[in-house]
Amino acid sequence: MNMIRILLLSLLFSLASLVEAASLVLPQFDKNVHLGVASCAASMCHGSLIQREGSDVLQNEYIIWSNSDTHAQAYQSLLTATAVKIADNLGIADAGQADICLDCHSDNVKQELQGDKFQLSDGIGCEACHGGGQHYISSHTDGTINRKQHLQNGLFPTDQPQSRAQLCLSCHLGNNDKYAGHDIMGAGHPRLAFELDTFGVLQPLHYVVDDDYKAQKWSGDHYITWVYGQLQASRAMLTLIINKLSKDNSLFPELALFDCHSCHHSMDKLSWTRSKGQGFKPGTVRLNDGNFKMLIAIASGTKMVKPLQQHLTAIGNAVHDKQQLTGAIAKARLDIDHLQSLIEHQPMAQRQRHARHVLQTILEMGSDGAFADYIAAEQTTMAIDLLFEVIEKKAEFSTEISELFDLVYNENNYQAIAFREKISEINNRLN
Ligand code: HEC
Ligand code: HEC
Ligand code: HEC
Ligand code: HEC
User: Nearest ligand to the C-alpha of residue 106?
Assistant: First the structure.
């Protein structure tokens, strides 16, 4: 590719990121005072002990959050023996006071935006997801104000799948403002894994999608939520690669962007297996491409599959060449936007058929050995689980699905061949 095209594409890429950045400010960086969980927890507001009859919302959100949502414990996790060890390894005196930890384990807003009842020790409170309450606290219960005005008053659009994905991924994958890099992993932090739909289900539900909800907010099934999650995770990953690999000049770039297991595996049982369609040589350090693989499956059956496959493969192969890497990323960014708009314009009936086709493609890719890397297998398992639910065959395949979960339960025992065989068995039985 000639230089001018690379420049043009990079320019387009940075413009796209600018538009994205300008249109969405995450709660941690909004300009509103965060009043603190106690401000939401009054019994007539969200602190009711039980769900309230005749109300549009449950009103017991606080109890659900504080009793069963791990986000409420996220700050306390910075005080455990594990956290003390991580901090010590990194030379941090107190994880409970270090921004690098607080940014993902609490609602770490600037001091001047912390209201009277605000406490960092409340962990990931309501406003860490819903935005600082200063301007919506008194108006958000006013039925005469429409949703657009609530959002203008500072409520974060948690219902919109793309912004929700950006919100969750900011902590569950990281972004340019906060990242749990290989230094933090090496110090003992758990590896981060995320999938929007699965984690949305795992988070104890504090809202009900009923008719009243649907009239005001975005709602969608497991399939479309998963699609948005994959689109956004891939974008976030590309942005991290641009910032931490292309622009980085150190001898060892950010290792946490690569598949952990491409370096961390024992050498007594050599397990290198060619991942189909990538053309890597043995010994290549592979990017963490679990989301990219899902994206290729999502694009299957559309005209975007070829360009995406080509550009994502080019990214994987270009980790040694920054110029090539930047060019390939710019192209993949545009492919992803294009794919999103194709899917958004699919009529409902076609979307249903497409979901089934995507499941079939994943099973075929898996039978062919495309998910030899652990992280791809982990994403695949979550996808298969939710896609079987979408085609209403989860009960019929429940044994096989739980066997898949068993195979990825412990990343240190992951066997690529056993995983491939199980997928192939499922594939044969579905057809
Ligand atoms: C401010 C950072 C932050 C945001 C935003 C965030 N999370 Fe989390 N999440 C965390 C942290 C930190 C933990 C671990 C808490 C602990 O155990 O200490 C966690 C834990 C979880 C868990 C439990 C995981 C497990 O292994 O048990 C789920 C599920 C989850 N988050 C889902 C979500 C979803 C869905 C969203 C978006 C709607 C989201 N999170 C937004 C930081 C965040
Ligand atoms: C980019 C966001 C991010 C940063 C930065 C980060 N964490 Fe975490 N941390 C998480 C998430 C998300 C989880 C939950 C992982 C899961 O279960 O999926 C977690 C989990 C943990 C856990 C395990 C909690 C449990 O009980 O399972 C500990 C301990 C921890 N983090 C400590 C730290 C410390 C100490 C720092 C600062 C050096 C730090 N974290 C920085 C996002 C982050
Ligand atoms: C980790 C992120 C996260 C945290 C923390 C969180 N929420 Fe939510 N909340 C969501 C998401 C995602 C939704 C669903 C999308 C939506 O309705 O906007 C939601 C929905 C809601 C709804 C909408 C219900 C409806 O029917 O419209 C209310 C009310 C709510 N949350 C209150 C709270 C309160 C109060 C707290 C704190 C005690 C809290 N949330 C903490 C993410 C979060
Ligand atoms: C390019 C190779 C490479 C990749 C990819 C990589 N690491 Fe590492 N890792 C190393 C090296 C080299 C060390 C330092 C030598 C050592 O301690 O074994 C290390 C050290 C560690 C340690 C400390 C090991 C110990 O002995 O206590 C942990 C934990 C760790 N890495 C986790 C991860 C996680 C999690 C990922 C993926 C997010 C990852 N690594 C990706 C090469 C890599």
Answer: 1
Q: Is the CB of 105 under 6 A from ligand 1?
A: yes
Token pair for residue 328? 């390939």
Which two structure tokens, joined as six digits, stand for 377?
A: 């297998």
Look over the chain and give the mean of its residue pLDDT values, rounded to a whole number: 90
Q: Is the CB of 256 under 6 A from ligand 4?
A: yes
In a domain, 149, yes or no: no
187: Cβ below 6 Å to ligand 4? no
Angle, vertex CA 62, rays to CA 199 and CA 233, nearest 5:
25
Pocket test for ligand 1, best of 34, 73, 156, 171 (most atoms within 8 A of CB): 171
User: Going by CA atoms, what residue is nearest to atom 6 of ligand 3?
Assistant: 126
Residues 180 and 204 in one domain: yes
| Atom 3 in ligand 1: residue holding the nearest Cα | 171
Q: Beta partners for 306? A: none
- Mind listing the pLDDT tens digit for each residue in 19-37? 444 468 999 999 999 999 9
Q: Note whether residue 150 is domain-resident.
A: no
Give the phi and the psi of residue 258 in degrees, each rounded to 5: -95, 165
SS3 at position 156? coil
Query: Is residue 148 in some structural domain?
Result: no
Give the chain's count of helices (H) and strands (E): 19, 0
Dist. CA 159 → ligand 1 center (Å): 16
382 in contact with ligand 1, CB cutoff 6 A: no
**Residue 165: closest CA among 215, 106, 239, 227:** 227
Question: 287 C-alpha vs ligand 1 centroid, how far in Å?
Answer: 24
pLDDT per residue as tens digits for the range 232-264: 999 999 999 999 887 777 777 899 999 998 888
**287 is a domain residue:** yes
51: which residues sit within 8 A by CB, 6+ positions away?
58, 59, 60
